[in-house]
Specification:
The complex is a heterotrimer of chains A (346), B (223) and C (286). With 346 residues, chain A is mainly α. Chain A has 14 helices and 2 strands. Chain A has one domain: ABC transporter involved in vitamin B12 uptake, BtuC (Orthogonal Bundle), CATH 1.10.3470. Chain B has a domain of 128 residues: 3-Layer(aba) Sandwich (Rossmann fold). In chain B, the strands form 2 sheets. Chain B has a 6-stranded mixed beta sheet with strand order 5-6-7-3-8-9, sandwiched between helices. The radius of gyration of chain B is 17 Å and the shape is globular. Chain B is 33% helix and 28% strand. Chain C is mainly α. The longest helix of chain C is centred in the N-terminal third of the chain and has 31 residues. The radius of gyration of chain C is 19 Å and the shape is globular. Classes of the chains: A mainly alpha (346), B alpha/beta (223), C mainly alpha (286). The interface between A and C is large, with 62 and 53 residues.
């Protein structure tokens, strides 16, 4: 326990001090990495605990961003915008979650994808949202008279956002509801039989993950200063899934780790791809090829993702493959299927 | 050695770390009816799946002379397909998909040949499973838990079919049964499998007479 | 009236394309229980291949045939990665196919660039009751109907088709009778690839494709297939046609910008209605 605390504190201090040492372009990476981590932690919980694959998590990122942007562009206090971002995203999640969370596996994946496509289509057509061009000139965030107009400010805001996300996620997982959630991931039927309100918990995790993504979106809007539907393509949602899977589903550090790994990887590939002599399509080709390969390799050969592998700890099973003899409190979620032998015996 | 259609020597099969079969020796002679009895979880189905090629041995050897057909536990119908289609799929391993012979052997199937297998009664499904196995013209038939969930009359009819197939066609049968009484009546020789090991084997009468077996599997006491 | 007829026929044509993509999803799902996210990529790859082959001088018909065969091969490769490793669960395989779909972007951009492509289809147009429609739409409809009939015959009357159904219905029993279930799975992926490829080949003359067209295609294909719960080709055809016609009518009478929403909302409604009929808790496999 103290080892974990010491480790967490160490990471916290290092990441807090880091922005001071970074150049402007590196700060951008730091911020985007942090924002991605916030979304990914939520997604990782959703996929790991509620066993749902969401291919539309960027929707909530977008909703948060647009909420913050719209409020401040129309003269409202920017802080209100920032607070409204996660709230609105979570609210939307609650509303759409009720019908669609009853869908299983692949159906939910397509439903979330469909929702994102609908959202993007609506935003592109909506003049109040700026249409395809989007919203420009979003004012800087100002809190109690202090205006965040430096990249460094946003780096710290992002750090705070990530820290908040991790703390809330940790508390939820460690709480009584958290135990119910873990039971949910291991075996829905058993959980329901033990009195765990399955539907409600799934909805809770869904809304929570949306809230994290929404908050990240809000910060993003203020940092960037402009938003357009094109900033939130389906590929971004897929990227979050890759981050969550690579990092390790259902683990909070996995969300951060996965986001970091993929963000840095994409940055590296972009740098590689934009070297003189490289064709113009090189950055995208490299990125797609590399992180697609990474996703496939992780799913096939390292199904629990990087975080558990690095820690050498935790063993969970996916909800519908759980051996019902395992106590709910035990292992970490993964995409691992049944062992080959068990498969043969079936 | 010659005349054995199934020869299993020192067979060991594992599930991960657990040992399901531990150096099992078992054989079936041509034209023999052999029973394999034992409690749930003894490894009977594991043995059958290994004979059938679905599982691979971790040690020891399995040798089958001629073709072995497997009638799986629980009937395992292709529910959405007709009886006729189920039968034809039984001949997957050989060229000849002609079902006429099987309908002759099991005339009860003719009536239901165009019915969906999933809608049949348990007894009918068991007959389909048997017919499906016979389609591949096997020299030895391995039947896993034939009597499960079936009424005694139905079981008797199936047993009669097996006897006929054995005496007329020389079909060797390895009968895996929880219903030890049925198995020992039908078969001339028996093995008793417990926790992955053969704990007894010999002529059925001898096995049936053994007090330990009688107590564990035959409801205790003579008769 | 003529406008309506025009929308109807173009809608049916486009709908057939969706149905073909969806039928590929169905074939794969029935046998392997995997939802193939790369299904749209088959269509894109085939379409791109046709434009290249035509440019290289290959005649029509031959170019399309090659492209469909290529798509089948690509399908096989996808299958190998998705289900080739024993013990991969369907959920994991779904994510794998997602990854492969993205990997396909890299290949497509590398070979064909990132600009939209199209090629000529059946030339000419015809007039039906005052409605002027491109003849190519008839080709799409005719070809699709033929393919669906062929599939019905395949599954019901051929040994291989029965084996595919058997592998889907009861993998254990299939292994017992000697059917190689993995091989059947791979075959279904190859078939799914060819079906997706055919969809791309048929519809690109009237709807150009880019490397990222696969998302819309796979979502539309899924929308069509979900009507039959991903397991019934006949319903997939119906779903595709309904979708295509609904889209065409909305585009014609209201506005083209609502097309996507129509498809998506239809799909969501079908899924939610189907789900409402089932219990909340997922039944676990024994």
């Amino acid at each position: 326990m103290t080892k974990t605390f010491a480790g967490t504190a160490f990471v916290g201090v290092v990441t807090l001090a880091l922005p001071l040492a970074l150049s402007l372009s590196q700060l951008t990476i730091y911020i985007l990495l942090g924002l991605a981590a916030m979304v990914t932690i939520g997604l990782s919980l959703l996929m790991g605990y509620a066993g749902q694959v969401s291919l539309g998590q960027a929707s909530f990122y977008a909703i948060g961003g647009y909420a913050a942007a719209l409020i401040s562009v129309h003269g409202g206090p920017s802080l209100l915008g920032l607070l409204a971002a996660p709230v609105l995203a979570a609210a939307v999640a609650l509303v759409v979650g009720v019908p669609i969370l009853r869908l299983r596996g692949h159906q939910l994946a397509f439903a979330t994808l469909a929702l994102q496509l609908i959202l993007l289509s609506v935003l592109s057509d909506a003049s109040w949202a700026g249409g395809a061009i989007g919203l420009q000139g979003i004012p800087h965030l100002s809190v109690a008279g202090f205006e965040l107009d430096q990249d460094l400010d946003y780096a710290y805001l992002t750090w705070a956002g990530v820290a908040l996300t991790m703390v809330v996620a940790h508390n939820v997982v460690a709480s009584r509801s958290g135990r119910g959630l873990r039971a949910l991931a291991t075996s829905e039927t058993a959980a329901a039989a033990s009195g765990v309100p399955v539907g409600r918990y799934r909805l809770l995790v869904f809304a929570l993950s949306a809230g994290f993504a929404g908050l990240a979106g809000g910060i993003y809007a203020f940092y960037l200063g402009y938003l357009a539907p094109g900033s939130f393509p389906v590929l971004l949602s897929v990227q979050y899934v890759v981050m969550a899977v690579v990092g390790g589903l259902g683990t909070i550090w996995g969300g951060l780790l996965g986001a970091a790994a993929i963000t840095l990887l994409v940055q590296l590939l972009t740098d590689l791809g934009t070297r003189p002599g490289m064709p113009s399509y090189a950055p995208s080709v490299l990125s797609y090829a590399v992180y697609a390969t990474l996703l496939v390799l992780v799913v096939l050969f390292l199904p629990r993702g990087l975080a558990p592998a690095l820690r050498g700890g935790w063993r969970w099973r996916r909800p519908d493959r759980a051996a019902r003899t395992e106590p709910p409190d035990a292992p970490a979620p993964s995409l691992a299927g049944p062992s080959a032998a068990a498969n043969e015996a079936a | 050695m010659s005349g054995r259609v199934v020869d299993v020597r020192k067979l060991t099969v594992r599930y991960g770390a657990a040992v399901a079969l531990d150096e099992v020796d078992l054989h079936v002679e041509a034209g023999e009816l052999v029973a394999l009895i034992g409690p749930n979880g003894a490894g009977k189905s594991t043995l059958v799946n290994t004979l059938s090629g679905i599982l691979k041995p971790a040690g020891g050897s399995v040798s089958v002379v001629g073709r072995l057909a497997h009638v799986p536990e629980g009937r395992q119908m292709f529910a959405s397909l007709t009886v006729d289609d189920n039968l034809r799929l039984g001949a997957w391993r050989i060229r000849d998909r002609n079902t006429a012979r099987v309908y002759e052997l099991l005339p009860g199937l003719v009536r239901v040949r165009d019915n969906r297998a999933g809608l049949l009664s348990g007894g009918q499904q068991q007959m389909v499973a048997l017919g499906r196995a016979l389609m591949s013209r096997p020299q030895v038939l391995v039947i896993d838990e034939m009597s499960l969930g079936l009424a005694p009359l139905v079981v008797a009819e199936l047993a009669a079919h097996l006897r006929a197939l054995n005496s007329q066609d020389g079909l060797a049968v390895l009968l895996i049964e929880q219903n030890a009484r049925l198995a020992l009546e039908l078969c001339s020789r028996a093995y008793v499998l417990e926790a992955g090991r053969v704990v007894a084997h010999g002529p059925s009468a001898q096995i049936a007479a053994s007090p330990a077996v009688a107590a564990a599997y035959l409801g205790g006491g003579p008769g | 009236m003529s406008a309506f007829l025009q929308y109807l026929i173009t809608g049916l044509g486009v709908g057939c394309g969706y149905a073909l993509v969806g039928s590929g999803l169905v074939v794969i799902y029935r046998v392997t229980r995997v939802v193939n996210f790369a299904q749209g990529a088959f269509a894109v790859v085939a379409a791109m291949a046709v434009s290249t082959l035509l440019g290289a001088g290959l005649p029509h018909g031959l170019a399309e045939a090659f492209a469909v065969a290529l798509a089948g091969l690509v399908g096989l490769l996808v299958g190998l990665v998705a289900i080739g490793k024993p013990g991969t669960s369907p959920q994991a395989a779904l994510i794998v196919t997602l990854g492969i779909g993205i990997f396909a972007y890299a290949i497509e951009i590398l070979i064909w660039g990132d600009q939209p492509r199209s090629f000529a289809g059946l030339p000419g147009s015809f007039t039906l009751l005052g409605a002027r429609v491109q003849s190519h739409y008839l080709l799409i409809i005719a070809a699709s109907v033929l393919v669906f009939l062929a599939m019905a015959v395949l599954f019901a009357r051929t040994d291989v088709g029965r084996a595919l159904t058997a592998a889907a219905a009861n993998p254990y029993a299939a292994r017992v009778v000697g059917i190689n279930v993995t091989r059947m799975g791979l075959l279904s992926f190859a078939l799914g690839g060819a079906l997706g490829g055919l969809a791309g080949v048929l519809t690109t003359p009237v709807q150009q494709v880019t490397f990222d067209s696969d998302v819309v295609l796979v979502v539309s294909g899924f929308a069509a297939a979900i009507l039959g719960n991903l397991t019934r080709p006949a319903f997939t055809l119906l779903g595709g046609l309904l979708l295509g016609v609904a889209q065409a009518l909305v585009a014609g009478y209201l506005s083209t910008s609502y097309q996507t929403e129509v498809a998506l909302l239809l799909m969501l409604t079908v899924m939610i209605v189907q789900a409402a009929r089932r219990p909340t808790i997922q039944e676990e496999p024994a």
